[in-house]
């Protein structure tokens, strides 16, 4: 997570929180985003992601979450809670089955349908960040 070198100011954090219950997809997303210069943190559940954001809200630049996943909170619930508590944090949701509207997301979010290509996911991340002021 956003390392600081001794004697230097902290760099602006470009942490993308990747929330996906499928390990292969989560790892692949983290890898392609890291190749683009982002710092990533991958988590397997929305429940864990909410705890992480609670402890590190200033470090998370973008929440990228799947909608459907196990746990007490799914990606839609996570998106709603994040937008309620941190309205300036951009949220990008993905799903092959649902849309933000059909899943119960009540706030504006970016959306990408699965399956996506690398170019599509990178464009969606870029658009979500630009929509939130960069």
Give a nutshell description of this structure.
The protein has 5 helices and 5 strands.
List keywords for this structure.
alpha/beta; CheY-like_superfamily; Response regulator; 5 helices; 134 residues; five-stranded parallel beta sheet; phosphoprotein; Rossmann fold; 39% helix
What does this structure look like?
Keywords: Phosphoprotein. This is Response regulator. It comes from Pseudomonas chlororaphis. The protein is α/β, with parallel strands linked by helices and 134 residues long. The protein has one domain: Response regulator (Rossmann fold, 3-Layer(aba) Sandwich), CATH 3.40.50. Helices cover 39% and strands 19% of the residues. A five-stranded parallel sheet has the order 2-1-3-4-5, sandwiched between helices. Strand 1, helix 1 and strand 2 form a beta-alpha-beta unit. Helix 2 runs parallel beside helix 3. The radius of gyration is 14 Å and the shape is globular. It starts with 14 loop residues before the first strand and ends with a helix.
